[in-house]
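A favour, since you know our structure tokens better than I do. Just paste the record in under my message, thanks.
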Amino acid sequence: MVLSPLDIHNKEFGTKMRGYNVDEVNDFLDQIIKDYQITLNHNKELEEQLDSANGKLKYFNDLKDSLNQSILVAQEAADKVKANSQKESEIIIREAQKQSSDIVSEATNKGNQIMTEASKRAKKLAVETDDLKKSTRVFRQRLQVMLESQLEVVKSNDWDSLLKEGSMSSYEEIKKVVGDRLDNGATQGVNSTAPQATEEAPVQEAPVTDTDTDQGETVVIFPDNDQEHYDQK
């Protein structure tokens, strides 16, 4: 049991012959009590400081543990966020690749479709152009035949005999010859069937001054001298 200053103060010693001086002993004990009390107070202060230090140490240890736990939680959360971000980025990349592939495929299909339609239209246009050329050749041949027949009518010897100066042909005779010639020439020109032109047998071109001449229309051109002759008649 630890002695207190009061225990030292109340301590009584017995006396013997030739013992210690009581006053000196009491003075020494008083000094011991004072020093002991100072030591006890200092120890108490040290204990209080130790308790405070231990409390702070415990607080910082708890704070350290809490910080470590927080760091671990934050690390786990960061790892999860990183993993989720990586997964989302992979998903986004896959979707972008799929969309780009779909876009390229769709564009390729549309391009092929457009090329196919353009090729079909080009072939159709070529066929229509070829048919138009054939129809134009037939029209040209028929027009040539009609014009040649009309030219034969104009070059006929009957015209020379009718229009010769001093001839005594009557109006009815001239009308009959001219009418028969024109009717025969027109009928021959309209009903003539010319063979279609081919690449192996090209048709000889004939000069045509009016390209808008109707296929079924018969045109007769009189020379200026003959017209004057009719005017004189």
Notes: The helical segments are 5-10, 22-154, 157-163, 171-191, 224-232. Residues 77 and 91 are 21 Å apart (CA to CA). The radius of gyration is 70 Å. Residues 189-233 have pLDDT under 50 and may be disordered.
